Amino acid sequence: LAVQSSNGSFSDEDRKQYTAEFGSLIKELDHVADTTNYNNIKLLDQTATGAATQVSIQASDKANDLINIDLFNAKGLS
């Protein structure tokens, strides 16, 4: 959106619309970060005390065959 908005062919009103759309996307991202969880673990909001930083999934019948997914804080990315 920033690249499109900086294009010289857009009016000030077009840029205002891009700014409003960007703000809406940030709000939606925060909403997703607040509500996305797996097994009561917030996957995109690591602000809670003692929050997990990684989820491991066993990929086969072998105990050490794991897929590790690093979690991060998606809140406040603006």
UniProtKB/TrEMBL annotation:
Taken from the record, one Pfam family name reads Flagellin_N
- Domain called Flagellin N-terminal: residue spans: 1-49
Q: What is the protein's name according to its record?
A: Flagellin
Instruction: Give the highest taxon in the source lineage.
Output: Bacteria
The organism's taxonomic lineage, starting at the top: Bacteria, Bacillati, Bacillota, Bacilli, Bacillales
Recorded GO terms, molecular function? Answer: structural molecule activity
Record keywords? Cell projection, Cilium, Flagellum
- What Gene Ontology terms describe where this protein resides (cellular component)? bacterial-type flagellum
Q: Which InterPro entries match?
A: Flagellin, Flagellin_N
Q: What gene does the UniProt entry assign to this protein? A: flaA
